[in-house]
Specification:
The protein has 346 residues and is an all-alpha fold. It has one domain (29-34, 48-115, 142-344). It is built from 13 helices and two strands, in the order H-E-E-H-H-H-H-H-H-H-H-H-H-H-H. The chain has helices at residues 6-32, 52-67, 74-94, 98-113, 138-156, 162-180, 184-204, 217-234, 245-251, 253-268, 281-287, 292-315, 320-344; strands at 35-36, 48-49. The protein has a two-stranded antiparallel ribbon. The termini are far apart.
């Protein structure tokens, strides 16, 4: 087997394995206590297996370990994703308390970043005063980034196909930027990651049915968020970054803006920033009578547009500080619009 045939075989293996694991886990879900039953704030009408994340993980890693062993920090990446999927599966089955889950996320972030792991050491020229090096704050900041991205993806998991769809968009652009900038190992890994998301997206986004066949589950949102956070950080750092740190923010702008606006709205209402509600972007679009499919398409489109804006402006030589200010303006506008909307449509 030569280098030319390895990538197609790995992609085929991962793609086929994802379908196989989805089918098997769909049948096993009742015995694994991984059924999401209707009730409360939930919109679905029948018990649905929460096995998408487990299926993607089980399809991704055999192909990864068989065909790609050159990626930096490979063992650490495997262990972090394994642990978050285990934690997410436990949460899906047993419903962990928020503080226990947050503690687990904190521990995983520290494991990822401490001791020479994946860290954000520079923010680039983010404030217009030269390169902003984090020094001793690199590990704490990296943990904050990790927790932020995975929770942003978790909040997006409120409409069928949305979390997987926005991840597809962001990861696809990261893959292209990595390939363009000779970060071939990361580009290949992201290609494999996309390959296992696509089958799940098809059965979750109601492409072949009127209802979702499987759900992502917390295991899935943690797996997607962890992988996205990992490559957002690794590809924006190093001697030959695929993109600047501020561009990384544009690549995941939609879930991040949504998360921070949700925190602000809850704090202004005198509630915990982590308390659940039905005031996310997908709820707003539903309130405007958009279907679930349309909501997913709109927010995937917004993810693509914002990411392309950031990439294009950076390529045109726009200063990093101006890109950051532009993102802050978008955040302020979104907060103002959503707070005003929910004030009149509560």
């Amino acid at each position: 087997m030569n280098a030319f045939t390895q990538p197609p075989l790995a992609l085929l293996l991962a793609f086929t394995a994802t379908w196989g694991w989805l089918w098997l886990l769909h049948r096993w879900a009742p015995f694994l206590r991984l059924l999401d039953r209707p009730g409360g704030r939930k919109q679905h009408a029948q018990p649905t297996p929460m096995v998408g994340g487990i299926a993607m993980f089980l399809a991704f890693w055999p192909a990864m370990l068989l065909f790609e062993r050159t990626m930096e920090h490979l063992e650490r990446f495997f262990l972090v994703t394994l642990l978050v999927v285990c934690i997410g599966t436990w949460d899906d089955a047993m419903k962990l308390r928020v503080r226990y889950r947050f503690g687990a996320e904190l521990a995983m972030g520290l494991f990822m970043s401490a001791g020479g792991g994946v860290t954000v050491v520079t923010l680039g020229d983010l404030v217009g005063m030269g390169e902003l090096l984090l020094g001793w704050f690199a590990v704490p900041f990296s943990v904050i980034c990790f927790i932020g991205v995975i929770n942003a993806l978790n909040m997006a998991d409120g409409v069928d196909g949305l979390a997987a769809g926005t991840t597809l968009v962001s990861a696809s652009l990261m893959m292209l930027l990595a390939w363009w900038n000779q970060r071939t190992s990361e580009a290949w890994t992201l290609g494999l990651f996309l390959t296992v998301i696509i089958p799940f997206f098809c059965v979750n986004a109601r492409m072949f049915r009127k209802t979702a066949w499987v759900f992502l589950g917390d295991a899935g949102s943690l797996f997607l968020g962890t992988t996205l956070a990992w490559f957002t950080m690794t590809l924006s750092q190093g001697e030959h970054p695929a993109f600047k740190p501020v561009v990384a923010l544009w690549l995941v702008a939609v879930p991040l803006i949504e998360m921070f606006s949700s925190f602000l709205r809850r704090i202004l209402a005198g509630r915990s920033p982590f308390s659940p509600d039905r005031h996310h972007a997908h709820h707003l679009l539903r309130q405007l009578q958009f279907s679930d499919g349309a909501v997913t398409a709109i927010l995937m489109g917004a993810t693509l547009i914002f990411a392309l804006i950031g990439i294009t402006l950076e390529r045109l030589g726009v200063a990093e500080v101006h890109l950051f200010i532009g993102l802050l303006v978008l955040y302020a506008l979104y907060c103002a619009i959503t707070i005003h909307f929910w004030k009149h449509h509560a």
